[in-house]
Amino acid sequence: MSTETLVDFDEALTRYEPALGLEVHVELNTATKMFCGCPATFGGEPNTQVCPTCLGLPGAMPAVNAKAVEAAIRIGLALNCDIAEWCRFARKNYFYPDMPKNFQTSQYDEPIAFDGYMDVDVDGETFRVDIERAHMEEDTGKSTHVGGATGRIHGADHSLVDYNRAGIPLIEIVTRPITGAGEKAPAVARAYVQQLRDLILALGVSEARMDQGNLRADVNLSLAPAGSGALGTRSETKNVNSFRSIERAVRFEVSRHAGVLDGGGKVVQETRHFHEDTGITTSGREKSDAEDYRYFPEPDLVPVAPSRAWVEELRATLPENPTTKRARLQGEWGFTDLEMRDTVGAGAFGLVEETIAAGAAPQAARKWWVAELARRAKDAGVELAEVGVTPAQVAAVQALVDAGTINDKLARQVFDGLVAGEGTPEEIVAARGLAIVSDDGALGAAVDKAIEANPDVAQKIRDGKHAAAGALIGAVMKEMRGQADAGRVRELVLERLA
């Protein structure tokens, strides 16, 4: 537990102004690594996707992955960046056990993309996030600390290193300080990363799964006295891997910084770890400045000089901006702001779009994905797209509802069958006997039974209180396991009693 003095977030903002900075690492989905031909796939057996180059063995020579350069340019263009006519890689020197070369091949003062921006909307207010640079680099390996209580190196018995991830292509997107957000600073940080992830997915250059580390954010924060126009000393909370955690990390660091400053102390420039279970951050190590890494040009790689013609060709491949697209489709679908926000928040926007394209009405598509299927995904602990149902199947289920073959309640049983792999929606309805009964003979018998069992209700209907018919309809639906045509049942009830 943290023993640091914390100041209430709202109270802190009466005396201090926060400044944000976000460094987002995007792991590209190229087939091979950044500087060698090893597979860049996720989940392989430890240390099976390595070679002399990504292990940093003497004499091994790197070569730049052209697809990674292409992805970097497309990301830069989508972020309204200038694309360098000439840039090169540098060696960032530091020792980590999961970086076998003892340096990281990266870019520093000569990035592939620079001077961009992204506009972020929070509660109807637009914040412009200036992008300082988007540069290419390689990922490190992965250390697993065994035997401790926290999974960190402190208290562990021993550590294991997997170099499969060493050399995976990364694009690091670095913002300039974001000021003026005030109490909305946590929400701005979250919205920026959410919007950036949407953009990355639209570009198709990464899976952008935060749970697998495809996309992770370092959250920089500083406080300065209100009205000073200055920037305070920053802390950097490393590798925050969910939108909610980004927001929580900002709030906590505002409270922590304010506690330090109120107590007459000085904020230490350091890296910090975010703890998902408690929502706090703890100290990692004092943060190095750029000169501490002794950057120098990488002697084994030639500069990258994308031609202007190639850059313009790549610009022509950019998809519609996700924010613009959402606004357009919201109007076409007739969604309210809240409905669209819930759809996006559930991770269902693309799935709803595909379901509508497959023939479902917009509200029906939204209903199934945002409510029924999102609940199933949460219960199963999987992403919504992995729940076991496709947009085409959702559209087919809704078509059965629209045709009167099943109702919404029965549709949920169809989804049970789809998740279990029992066939198409039509096959499941047939196999499980889920089709709605509209035969007057069967329905009439059930109606007569309900009337006999509920004489008081029947008398109210005879007296003209037709609203009481709902009770008899409910009894019939229960008798027929939800498979009665409710509209026809109502007609039969009123025919017999009105």
The secondary-structure element order is: HEHEEEEEEEEHEEHEEEHHHHHHHHHHHH
Task: Determine the strand fraction and express it as a percent band.
Answer: 15-25%
Shape: elongated
Count of structural domains: 3
Give, in spatial order, the strands making up the sheet with the most strands: 2-5-6-9-1-10-11-12-13
Q: What's the story with the biggest beta sheet?
A: 9 strands, mixed
Number of strands: 14
- C-alpha Rg (nearest Å): 29 Å
- Quaternary organisation of the protein chains: single chain
Uncertain runs are none
Q: Kindly state the percentage of residues in helix.
A: 25-40%
Number of helices: 16
How far the N terminus sits from the C terminus, by CA atoms, comes to 70 Å
Mean pLDDT: 89
Family: Belongs to the GatB/GatE family. GatB subfamily.
EC number: 6.3.5.-
Catalytic activity: L-aspartyl-tRNA(Asn) + L-glutamine + ATP + H2O = L-asparaginyl-tRNA(Asn) + L-glutamate + ADP + phosphate + 2 H(+); L-glutamyl-tRNA(Gln) + L-glutamine + ATP + H2O = L-glutaminyl-tRNA(Gln) + L-glutamate + ADP + phosphate + H(+)
InterPro entries: Asn/Gln-tRNA_amidoTrfase_suB/E, Asn/Gln-tRNA_Trfase_suB/E_cat, Asn/Gln_amidotransferase, Asn/Gln_tRNA_amidoTrase-B-like, GatB, GatB_Yqey_C_2, Gln-tRNA_amidoTrfase_suB_CS, Gln_synth/guanido_kin_cat_dom
